[in-house]
Design brief:
heterodimer, A: alpha/beta, Udp-n-acetylmuramoylalanyl-d-glutamate--2,6- Diaminopimelate Ligase, Chain: A, domain 1, five-stranded mixed beta sheet, 17% strand, globular, B: alpha/beta, 2 domains
Amino acid sequence: MKLTHISRRRFVQIAGTAAAQFPLQGADAPTAQALIQRVQSALGGEWQADGLDGFKAGDPNTPVKGIATTAMATMDVLKQASKAGANLIVTHEPTFFGRQDGPAPPPQGAPAFFRALSADDPVYLAKKEFIEKNGLVVFRLHDNWLSSKQSDMTAALAEALGWGKRRVNPNDALYEIPAATAAETVALIREKLNLRGGLRAVGDRTAVVRRVLLFPGFLTPAVMWKRYTEADMTITGEVREWENTFYAADMFTAGEKRNLVTLGRIASEDPGMRSCAEWMKSVAGDIPVRWIPAGDLYWRAV
Amino acid sequence: MTGREVVELIKQNIGVPWREQSYRDTFKFGDPDAPVKGIATTVMVTFGMLKRANEAGLNMVIAHEDTYWNDRDETKDLLENPLYKKKIEYMRDNGMIVWRNHDHMHAMTPDYTVVGSLRSVGIKGGENATMRPGVLPIPETTLGEFASQVKRLTGSRAFRCVGDPKAKVSKVLLGPGYATPRMSVETDVVIGGEQQEADGGFDNVEYVADAASLEMPKGLIMLGHVISEQPGMEDLGKWMRTFIKGIPIQYVPADEPFWT
């Protein structure tokens, strides 16, 4: 698309901005494909094309009216995005219920118990139909966001918890926070992140918490074993119970006054995608960018 | 009777081919040829459970899950770890023996982990269930009411639910521990122990939340590993008593680890 296809007024609007160096493919708005190319260039570094990232639903040639970032493109997020006029949804986690992010042929000999998503699954079909009918486009931004220097999921989580200025060392997980008991700290976390039933803690609820480690996403045993005793509370998205949950439980039995808090993977990644929205404003030109939290999907029985 | 002889008796009575190659079902601690004073069955070899077993005079633990916080019970990265050292020191000082029964339990008919889990949440018809029990009927109720029943029966403080509590449900698919089954068209409620929340083989959490947004009646109940898989370890103990005589065999549960 040549610049002559853009109105003079529009050209003046965009000239001199970062957007001007990218060809616009519609009269008014870039396509989702073009916008993602901007994201790709602006993130810099090697773009991993063979990983998890890519368009997952909708037509990449759709002109973008608005962008919404989220930790996970749930139906609720898609509905909110559509209502708000955002038609490019940038999601950190899958849209279609697994790493495969869509239907897959059943693996040879796999029991039905563990089979993959089938192409005629009613939830899959209804979600896909909603996306297509409303002209939405969904792009997964995971690997390339995490490996970029613009992303700092840890700082974003700390910011959401009100601990943004309390990082002990740059680029590290350790924070020093105002002293409170573990129970009080958990209550604060719940309130700040607007959690419902997903948070679980292991350890001593009466312990005084001054130092916390933040690991949004998944916490591996290797990191747990190495760092758990550095802090009074380790906060992460999720762990495997037979690994880190019982490591924390055994620590408690051994007399350590510490806690492991799991927020839920999505709840722990939501703030990071808020910071992604903030960053994306710098490449989106005059296209509005908003963050739509996927939120805490769990509740507790009464 | 020694630890090795106890395992030999299990091997003779289990009714399925013995899996010599299993890295899971091996001795994890202690001298297999030391005499056994008593046996504790449990789901997870927690430090707390080890202490309760020892205080009850039971020096052999038969557990469904790992001892050193990883499935293979690899210890090479733990040799200098203070918690690891404390745990093995406690077991050594008290002459304890740990053997894991995981793969063989799931190969058995019935699979007691499934039998116990179904019973513990009040689902009937699972007395002879195998590892993959299929969809079972429950009297029609709402997801919220069913979750309340699960809470009442299990005493769990911390299990998590997804879906619309008002959804009408009557068909349940259960898999304990990490064998949380995927939601299917024929199923209203999936009950599992634990599962990766997102970006896994099949993300039940997102699927069920989306089904709820689309007004399709689906529910997910994640009990936690211990609450879901532990009840069957009592059944395993009962079964072992039918062929191991003269040694006390007790169910020593691991505690639900969570506060909320």
